[in-house]
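Q: Give me a backbone?
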Amino acid sequence: MTGFVENFKKKNDYRSGKFPKSPDCHPQDVLGYYIWSDLQMYDYLANEFTICDNYYSSHPGPTLPNRMYSLTGHLQHDRNGEPRLNNSMDSTFFLSRDETIFDVLSRYEVKWRVYESFPSVTILRMFSKYAGNTTEIRNIKGLEIDIANNDFPSVVFIDPSMHTAVVNDDHPPADMLNGQNLVKSVYDTLKSNTEIWNNTLFIVTYDEHGGLFDNVYPPIAETLTDPRQKGKGTKWGKLLNPNNEILPDESVQFGLRVPTFLISPYAKKGSVFKAPLDHTSILKSILIRFCEGERPYMGPRVDHTKNFGDALTSQRRINIPQSPKLAQTEEMKKVFTLNDLKKFYTNFKPVSKSSLTSAEADFHDFMAVLSRMTKPF
């Protein structure tokens, strides 16, 4: 719950001589907000469907740990068994062998797919089994054709463009209008196929706050207890000090709240779902819906979290108004050609290994490096 003003102060603290004053820097830029007309697609979705006001990112940290929660139900661990709490790129970064929700679905013979916004790549490629996958991982440009042909599996994840070719992930400094158009495109495409739309829950959420301010202090996600203290919490990690004394229970918080929409003909119109949720709630809902019988165990977070069932009704809505027409940015109107891709791969600013392994490493740099490793020519 700190950092916005301090971070801004660094950008504008020219008096110390450490940071040059930016001509574009204004005190009112510390915090800002959008009104409904700025985010017309989100305004439409909030009025026509259900939003969540108690949905938290799973981890009080950056993108990578939260993405790991959204795919595996827990943090990734390094070769020493220590949890990775920040974005880091060590020798095992690209070769995670943790079990993902997609491994579970494959075991249950449930079809799934991931659409990536190339040249951005999905984080699923950071798992060794899927690094070079071209069957279940596809370019988002094929989404419309797949849905038109009823080629749409039971579980689908969609990753936005995060660092080039029309950035539409809503992460500053991306133009929010690009993100509005992405959500509208997916939504309109789903509705174009009545059979698919009538059986779909479309969830729009964020892996972490990414610059979004919130005044609500995140609640406790779980309590970690020394393994010798039975029945007092989740058995995870060492809670011994250097003197080998048992420490009190250690509480782990959720990250900040993130906006989340539940979009479906079975979602209540203009409703607010107040159940406490996080990214593992998506995993829990998938397991309940598609993994019948003895439900697979994906860790304590998934096991104890709430699901989206209570946010849906048994009565399907019909005659839902069309989504609003949106303007397009000049960036979106540009046709991104193969020559543009070649320029991107040859002219990009090199990213040093030290910058990728530092605590301040930017996840977009990771994804940019990975996408260049998988260039199509």
